[in-house]
Each structure stands twice: as C-alpha cells, then as structure tokens.
Amino acid sequence: MRPEDADAVRQLPLFRDARDETFARMIRAGFLQRFPPGVTIINESDHADFLHVVVDGLVEMFAADGDRETSVSLIRPVGTFVLAAVLTDQVYLQSARTLHKSQLLMIPAEQVRSAVGTDEGFTRAVVADLARAYRGSVKELKNQKLRTGAERLANWLLQDVPSHEGEHVITLDFEKKKLSSLLGMTPENLSRAFSSIKSLGVSTSGAAIRIENVAELRRFARPNLLIDRPE
User: Fold this and answer.
1) How far apart are CA 40 and CA 32, in angstroms?
2) What letter would DSSP give residue 199?
3) Is the N or the C terminus of the chain less surrounded, counting Cβ atoms within 10 Å?
4) Residue 86 CB-density burial (10 A; 0-12 exposed, 13-18 middle, 19+ buried)
5) Domain shared by 105 and 161, yes or no
C-alpha cells in the first residue's frame, strides 16, 4: 500500500485513535485489491471474512429479495463497510459492488475482532462508528416515512450544495436509476418527483442537475437537522 493511502486510512475515525502497532498489524494482515466497475465484492448471507475500506472508486451497497433489488447506500473514499457483521462474526446483510474502477483494502475479520478489547482507542472508535451507523439508519427511516418522494429528492439535492443561495449544478457520477433506488422510488416516480420540483427551478440534462435558485428549493425541502445533519 502506498504511504499516502495508508495515511488516508489512518485518518478514518475508526483507525485514528488506534495504537500505531494495532494499525500496523491490521494493515500488514490486509491486502489492497483493484476491481473493475460492476464487480460484486460481497454477497448478502455470505460469512463476513473481511472489513472493507474503499481507498479509491465508488461502491454500492445493495440488497435483493427474489427479483427485487434496492440500493442501500454508496461508499466513497475513504470509507468502510460491513463493520457490524465483522464484529459479530455474522453473515453480511447487504451485498456490495463497484460502480467505478475501485481500489479496496481488505482487513481480515479476525484482526479487527482481536484489536477490539485490546486497544482502548480502537474499541472506543468502533463503538462510536456503530452508534453513528445506528443514528444514520434512524434518520434514513424518518426520511423515508415522513417525506414525499419530491421532498426526499429535494433534500438529497441540497446535501452537497454550498451555502450560497444562487445557482448550482450537480453532476451525477452514477446512473439515475441508482438515485431512484437510494431514495426509495421507482425510476418512474423519480421522474415525477423531478417534474414536481421543476417549477422551483430544478432541471436535468443527462447526468447534470441544475438548481437555479437554491433558496427556493430549500424553502420547499424544509431540511430538518434531526434527519439531514450528517453523522
């Protein structure tokens, strides 16, 4: 692993307070692997053998039941996934696949479990990470149950918008059908949601989404800190 990649992983909240020897041991036991787009890395119901760290690229967490499938979240660098399954020595509850060419660090699950309880800083970070994940799940549940599709879309668009109140353009780096799934909609419902906020100055052209007046969209979305503030 390149020193700059190791440094980026080290700065993750999960590893930041771990002892140097703990972090070095996990890094030595892990391995860095490159994947092309469209590769399924883990499958739900498989046993959790590794903690995964996205060093580069974009990974989609998804789940399926019969012929139905839904996107659960997107993991960008530098982020981890399946910590809970690793800690409890259980099966994965989600699958993961690459949306872009990606590079992942895979740390053996037993190394992670061994560090919990022997390294106080790492243990505290694990507890904090699980707490953030729980709070994030509650917020997403509230988002799905308390808002219309158009309101969910509007608040999603506002996530990465700067604080200025003028025009802003968002360029998606994944397919729109992934966005509809992330927001709990069909592609047809997403299209209707975009139509319903068109009068607010929101338009699309390919992967580009233009917001002509951020303040107007914010008045419609009514962001709620108990739902929309990042953990």
Assistant:
1) 16
2) G
3) C
4) buried
5) no
What is the pLDDT, as a whole number, of residue 65?
96
Q: Whose CA is closest to 4, among 70, 103, 74, 137? A: 103
Question: Quick one: angle between helices 187-196 and 149-158, nearest 10?
Answer: 80
Mean pLDDT of each 10-residue bin along the chain, 231 residues long = 88 96 96 96 97 97 96 96 97 98 97 96 97 96 98 95 80 96 97 97 96 94 95 84
Q: Which residue range(s) make up the domain with 204?
A: 147-228
- Domain with residue 101: its CATH number is 2.60.120.10
Collect all residues with Cβ–Cβ distance below 8 Å to 50 and sequence separation of at least 6.
Answer: 30, 82, 86, 106, 107, 108, 109
- What is residue 13's predicted lDDT score, i.e. its pLDDT? 94
Q: Alpha-carbon distance 230 to 169, whole Å?
A: 21
Is the Cα dihedral 223, 71, 11, 2 positive or negative? negative
- The candidate with the shortest Cα–Cα distance to 111, out of 21, 6, 26, 23, is 26
Distance CA 113, CA 218 (A): 43
pLDDT at residue 166, rounded to an integer: 76
Instruction: Report the pLDDT value the prediction gives residue 64, as an integer from 0 to 100.
Output: 96
User: Do both 164 and 52 map to the same domain?
Assistant: no
pTM: 0.92
Q: Are residues 152 and 167 in the same domain?
A: yes
Q: What's the CATH code of the domain at 187?
A: 1.10.10.10
pLDDT of residue 164: 66
